[in-house]
Amino acid sequence: MPVIQANGINLYYKIQGSKEKELLLLIAGFDSDSSTWAAMMQLLVQQYRVLRFDNRGMGQSEAPNTPYSIKQMATDAAALLDYLSIERVHIAGHSMGGQIAQELALAHPEKIQSLILLSSWAKGDEKFNSLIKLFGDLTDKIEGKLYQRVLLPWLFTDAFYSTPRAMVQLIYLIENYPFPPTPHGLYYQTQAILGSDTSDRLTNIHCPTLVIVGKEDLLTPVRFSEQLAQGIPKAELTILEQGGHAFIVESADSVAKVMLDFLAKHNSHTQEF
Question: What is residue 225's predicted lDDT score, i.e. its pLDDT?
Fold first, then answer.
């Protein structure tokens, strides 16, 4: 199991794909670890060497019982890149992972070859913040497996819910997942989300950027992605007609194709480490 000491914690990571290919770093969102990208990995590794890791508080990474911040989690990611001697990388972040990716791009522009922000935002509105606060307040109020099921309606579309087999498989995976998050890890991630705001710094992101969102995203609606794309110089915006907040799971092939089309325009040189 590849685990390193990064920024004061044990950080789990995984690399797949040929060393000859350019590197793509994937950053997961709230209540998610590196496995959240599994449905699109087969497509991505055909074109890129893919690096995934578990954010602090999730999966096989350490979950310190102290407050987290988005900037801190971006520093975790930067420490991983330094450990692997990676100088330039494409980055894709989903949801909270998009917040982390923004901070990483702002703090280390020299490392970022291109940036993809999926179902993300710069600053939440009152409704969004109220919901994230509720997610945090519930972490120690209800049992872990039930907590996961409470989140599902915010993540998936009506079409997904009308496919019983898909829901049964998803619930089975949730109930049998070997690395469930801790209540305090979930809580501190919600607080990190609420404490982050890049809205007045988006103009400082100058790398090629793609913003992607599903039209049916209930949690981070299209307007959040429109604000990101308007704030980041020359950013591209893609709105998928079919897709909710968890479209990297539900519509993995469609999302991967959009990502790969964008990345193909911004390849430069082979990463080696």
Answer: 98
